[in-house]
């Protein structure tokens, strides 16, 4: 029975560990691009744009419709006719024309021969496709940025917990030493109480950090479109610092945000042209072929013997529509389109300045955080050395408990500062890569 229980526990342990995924930044981003709702919806918009283009093209193709009718005339209209037409001058004849039943069926065709708005729509079709493709690229970049920043934040919180766990273990060892000294009358109860309070504070902070880790992990899973219950590990190699190449400011004209606005400007120009098309005449070809049946009975199944006769007729023609005056409505819409274009051009200028600013700020943050990391790494080394020496001195009675606790606090603070400096560097690194328009390199490497 014991062996079965042990085997069951081992199986459960293996199953639990198998459910924990090793998640690199590249894996996290790829998962998000495939599963996050924003990315999926953006791809659907690209697909939908093709149908919008097909809708525009349909206006240039023949429009064919079939029609049918069945009419019953309970009372036929009476017409008054001059009797002279029938050899009876000076008299008036009342006559009813038509039949009680009339049925018809036919096919009609309409083909635009000249319509400036249709031609403009066809020219704008390719720009419409490119607009949605660029918008999809921008959405993917936004997903990548959110996932990368959240990914690094999770790692930092986990590192903080690791440091606190280590500090808690070390403080527990000091507590045991102080307790042994107190039991032997070599330490004050105040010293023991202080170390117990210290352990309690560390434990409280650990609980707070655990809560922050859970919140950060849930946020990352949300940005990825990953089930909240999924467990994952982050390799330490993902947090290594590699010097970022600082070049001259990139060309903002290649940034996705800028390209999207320029494409939007192009579409607004097409929209303005389409409105102006209302000034132009339109010409279309129309044609129809119809079959009509008339008689005193329902024509659908009746024959000439029943007094029902069928005949066909057709027509081909041209329809010309020449706009003359519409109350200046078209002129007003053209001017509104001009305002929309000018407003967007201001957005383009502002965006260009903003993109330049993003690069300058990211570059400054990279440079500053590089220096900070170097300094904090040295501070961490010195703090650990001081803690080691202070701990030895305390064991030899050459340092007070206050000195030891201060050294522990300083060491923990130095390690936390170093970890935060790395996080700031990583976030600045993402911002710099974004400012270069190279966020996709995070999944291509």
3D structure, described in words:
The protein has helices spanning 2-18, 25-35, 37-58, 116-183, 189-224, 256-276, 329-395, 401-435, 441-444; strands at residues 20-22, 63-72, 78-82, 92-96, 101-114, 231-233, 282-295, 309-321. The protein is an alpha+beta fold and 445 residues long. It folds into 2 domains: 20-59 and 115-280 and 327-444, Outer membrane efflux proteins (OEP) (Up-down Bundle); 63-113 and 281-322, Single Sheet (Outer membrane efflux proteins (OEP)). The strands form 3 sheets. Strands 2-5-7-8 form a 4-stranded antiparallel β-sheet. Strands 1-6 form a two-stranded parallel sheet. Strands 3-4 form a two-stranded antiparallel ribbon. It is elongated. Residues 1-18 have low confidence and may be disordered. It is found in: Cell outer membrane. Pfam families: OEP. This is Outer membrane protein TolC. Residues 334-393 form a coiled coil. Residues 1-20 form the signal peptide.
